[in-house]
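for the recovery benchmark. tokens below, seq after
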């Protein structure tokens, strides 16, 4: 169960990450990256971000690129939230494929 502080920090990180990804993907036409959830560890040192990527065919390539650039993303987050957080957590990014799963279930139910 997450504490109130964990929830507040997770929402702050989700907002800032989504802003960063929105600015970075403007140059890549036809690609949309949204942050569906952020879970933070109780000691506030590790944040797990779940990304929903459209089109899903390029999801593996994009998540690999994001994971290679976690240090620069962490630095960017640090400059944005330096007055709210003492320790900037390390980020781990995962693909949120729940929308693809829902779409698959819907197509199976329609058969």
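predicted aa per position
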């Amino acid at each position: 169960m997450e504490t109130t502080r964990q929830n507040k920090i997770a929402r702050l990180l989700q907002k800032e990450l989504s802003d960063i990804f929105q600015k970075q993907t403007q140059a890549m036409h036809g690609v949309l990256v949204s942050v569906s959830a952020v879970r933070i560890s109780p000691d506030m040192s590790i944040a797990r971000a779940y990304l929903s990527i459209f089109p899903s065919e390029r999801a593996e390539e994009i998540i690999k690129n994001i994971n290679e650039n976690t240090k620069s993303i962490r630095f960017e987050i640090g400059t944005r939230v330096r007055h709210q957080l003492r320790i900037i957590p390390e980020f781990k990014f995962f693909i949120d494929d729940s929308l693809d799963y829902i779409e698959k279930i819907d197509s199976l139910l329609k058969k």
